[in-house]
Write a structure and sequence with these properties.
Residues 1-30 are annotated as: Disordered. The protein is built from 13 helices and eight strands. By secondary structure, the protein is mainly alpha-helical. The radius of gyration is 35 Å and the shape is flat.
Length: 448
């Protein structure tokens, strides 16, 4: 065994001045010479440029337009398919009564699809101008899904890049609705061609925009940041509108529950059979969104009509002859409005309070009570105007006689809702912000 310190002395001896050694046993100078030779050889060879990493590019414009047009076809097909299944099942269950054929059933399918776009149908006994909002949900949802897939397939990263594909989708979809209206014109029903053009353009533009936003909101910095104050107004308006519609939905549900025996009796009076009962129930479900908007108009004050010279409002109920439909059984009897239904009048006040609370809670620290009240009032006006627009979409008419005018007045509902929501929202926001500032000023400061 070597005495202690021998290994250390050996290492020190290796590190003594002299010819330095490399780790591989060679000298350091030899290593430097080898590296120099390698560098010279590398410099002598022509350097091949490494391919630059390019960001994902969009396909050519022609491809984007084609993708948008195909997306429009997909949206129309996916919306028509469930409607065709329901209509064909009803036609088959009826055994083709009246000499109707499968082609006639498909024609009815197209009529229903066009009704979902707000297209008027001229019938033998009048014009059908009432579009079930539940029916509108089919093409709108199909357009959103198709637009989302098309925008994602084209690699869209900014709103401007989405222009070609959305333009092609909107144009192609409007062409489809127009062609459907022209192709199905006949003696039984005549769709409005102008309504088909307008309805196709509007619905495709809305669905396409929503689909594009679904993609762009997941891209970092793809969408501009909304300024703080417009964001407060938008949040308050959404809260107010949701509260009004929620209260209206509760009123409708309570009325349907109280009048369930009358609704069942109206169904039995039609003798529809099992399949007819199923189809009648489906029609009632499609009309439920319209009924919720009608109930919201009742809560706001103007109410709604279910025929010429009729009115269903908190001030009183005036009714005429009505068809036997389950949803109409939920209407109150003629005379003074039921006391229970008057509870829904608190809905607009609650909605305004929600709008004011949303604005006050999200307001920045430096926002004064007066400014908060102004923003809350704007949110109430916004919610009221949207409710007026929904009233316009939910109303209409069915024929030229009993149900020539159905639904609320969009102007009256919009004005009444805007005023009620704005006043309550402004008061609540002012109080909450003022209280918060007073509480902050009253807090004792800690000693230095």
């Amino acid at each position: 065994m070597a005495p202690p310190g021998t290994a250390a002395r050996d290492r020190c001896r290796d590190d003594t001045p002299g010819e330095p050694q490399s780790r591989s046993g060679g000298t350091v100078s030899g290593t430097i010479e080898a590296m120099s030779t390698l560098l010279d050889a590398t410099a002598a060879r022509p350097r091949q440029a490494r391919p630059a990493r390019t960001p994902s590019r969009q396909p050519p414009l022609r491809t984007q337009l084609l993708v948008g047009a195909v997306a429009a076809l997909r949206a129309a097909a996916f919306a028509l398919l469930p409607l065709a299944v329901v209509v064909l099942v009803g036609w088959a269950g009826a055994g083709g009564d009246g000499g109707s054929s499968a082609g006639d059933a498909l024609r009815v399918t197209v009529y229903a699809w066009l009704l979902g776009h707000g297209v008027d149908l001229s019938l033998a006994h009048g014009t059908l101008r009432l579009s079930p909002l539940g029916l509108t949900a089919f093409p709108l949802a199909s357009l959103v899904v198709a637009a989302t897939a098309a925008v994602r397939a084209c690699g869209v990263r900014t709103p401007r890049q989405a222009g070609p594909v959305l333009g092609a989708l909107t144009t192609a979809y409007a062409v489809l609705t127009t062609a459907a209206a022209v192709a199905t014109r006949g003696s039984a029903a005549t769709p409005s061609v102008a309504g088909a053009v307008l309805g196709g353009l509007v619905l495709a533009a809305v669905g396409g925009t929503v689909g594009a936003l679904r993609v762009l909101r997941r891209r970092p910095r793809a969408l501009p940041t909304m300024p703080r104050e417009p964001g407060l107004v938008l949040a308050g308006a959404v809260g107010a509108l949701a509260t009004v519609l929620g209260a209206a939905g509760l009123l409708l549900a309570a009325s349907l529950a109280l009048h369930a025996p009358e609704a069942a009796a109206s169904v039995r009076s039609l003798h529809p059979g099992p399949l007819g009962t199923l189809l009648l129930s489906g029609l009632s479900v499609l009309l439920l969104p319209n009924a919720v908007v009608f109930a919201a108009a009742y809560a706001v004050g103007p109410g709604f009509a279910v025929g010429a010279g009729t009115s269903v409002a908190p001030s009183g109920v005036v009714l005429g002859p009505l068809p036997d439909l389950p949803l109409l059984a939920a209407l109150p009897s003629a005379g003074p409005a039921p006391t229970l239904s008057l509870l829904v009048l608190a809905g607009p006040a609650l909605a305004g309070a929600v709008a004011g609370a949303v604005v006050a809670r999200r307001a920045p620290a430096g926002l004064g009570p007066d400014r908060a009240a102004g923003l809350a009032a704007l949110s109430g006006v916004g919610g009221g105007l949207v409710l007026g627009l929904l009233s316009l979409l939910a109303g209409g008419g069915a024929g030229d006689r009993t149900l020539a005018h159905v639904g609320p007045s969009a102007v009256q509902v919009g004005l009444a809702a805007s005023g009620e929501l704005a006043l309550v929202a402004a008061a609540v926001a002012w109080l909450l912000v003022h209280r918060a500032r007073s509480a902050g000023a009253a807090e004792p400061t800690s000693p230095a």
